[in-house]
Amino acid sequence: MTLFLMRSKEQGMISDPHRPRYHFLPLANWMNDPNGLIQWGETFHLFYQYNPAGAYHRNIHWGHATSADLLYWQHQPIALAPTPGGPDADGCWSGCAVNDYGTPTLIYTGFRLPEEQTPCLAVSRDGLLTWQKWPEPIIPAPPADLDLLGFRDHTVWRENGRWAMLIGAGIRGQGGTVLLYRSDDLRRWEYGGPLVIGDAGQFDPVWTGTLWECPDFFSLNGDHALICSVWDRCPYYTIAMRGAYRDGRFTPSLTHKLDYGDAHFYAPQTMPLRDGRRIMFGWVMEGRSEAAVLAAGWAGVMSLPREVQVSSDGQVVALPIAEVTQLRGMERRMSPARIMPGALQWTPICGAHLELEVVLLPPSQGTCSVWLRASPDGAEATILRYNRATATLTLDRSRSSLSSDVWHDSHHAPLPLAPDEPLRLRIFLDGSLIEVFANDRRSITSRIYPSRPDSDGVALQVEGNPAELVMMRAWEMADIWA
Ligand code: DQQ
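# 2,5-dideoxy-2,5-imino-D-mannitol complex -> structure
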């Protein structure tokens, strides 16, 4: 009977039209942050925040999956579970993995109710499958001289023959921060002060909030990049800072949102690959009510693997790794055309699990839009709109779904284009997930939940002056679980 129930529950989830097919997610239940990303031998390891008991955030474990190519994944047994009475009794929160001279080592945040957060460590002796916890927290308490909001999430790297670590935090009355520690053995740490402190009173060019979660820090094209997730009142989002790192202090010269889908690209983590690339995954959180999530039985998806780069306008950008093209199946094309203002122009392209490449010369005045997951009568559609006058790319979710149980707000990315520069879009649709990359310099990641089975059309629309469609191709994408 139990087996029958389990089978029909899983079957229901597999046939759930909102479930992505070519992005990583567990078989069921709750997933949030990517953790412990590491290339070990020929294998990539992805750990993640996971609640095996259901599709809600509680009693967090570390789930585990492995891959040979970052595209196709094998589920592995749970890596870390809370230890009753231990510093992680109520959750094994986010952290990272390092290679400690041949020993795979995890550094993570032990969570104990009501809000105790302490750095913990675990090692594996069997190829990253099972993990033995260090008996004590590796840092007993946060620095006593700081009035902190949060003390959690870790990034660890080698520097000048020692280990260095950042822990996410916020200083009450000041702003988000990351605290620097140094160690010789990963078990005893010396506090080195805040690497940088944000100003929560400053709203320009982007508000950096009161608490920084999930820090990541690395050198990038001659300077350093610090990535932090801004936790505060909704919406959450991820910021990227570029600047100079000297003598244990970081001075940002540029700060911006990393992805303009806000909460839907959160807590990203990177890993350096042996081939020199730095790969990032982000947690793409749900955009529907808790009741809808519980009814679905699963929550949270990983973004596509992305390569961290510096865009042509100097921002940190994470773009799909080149290997993603291996997932492309049947191709459809649309001939170049002049798109006149007015009625919707339907394309022969349709589907819910697609990659699209669209190159458009936007009108000199007015807007051009790509309608995605659109029903034939246009009642449901997710509209990606570019407005040259405001230099804004908008992902309009106001009619993405007829359901009232889902988020309907829009996302806006600033995207100035040179006068004759086309708008070059790469769009990934995968059930309820959408990832948009524009001109290799902006991304918008989000969730949409069309309610109608015929909401799978693609159309173009122009308002104002005509626009030119230079190129449009689409591919049916592989099912990585098939
Ligand atoms: N998620 C983890 C925390 C982290 C937050 C808990 C970010 O460690 O700060 O699941 O989503």
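# post-check
Residues 32-33, 49, 60, 93-94, 109, 152-153, 213-214, 229, 266-267 surround 2,5-dideoxy-2,5-imino-D-mannitol (CB under 6 Å).
The domain at 27-322 is CATH 2.115.10.20 (Tachylectin-2; Chain A).
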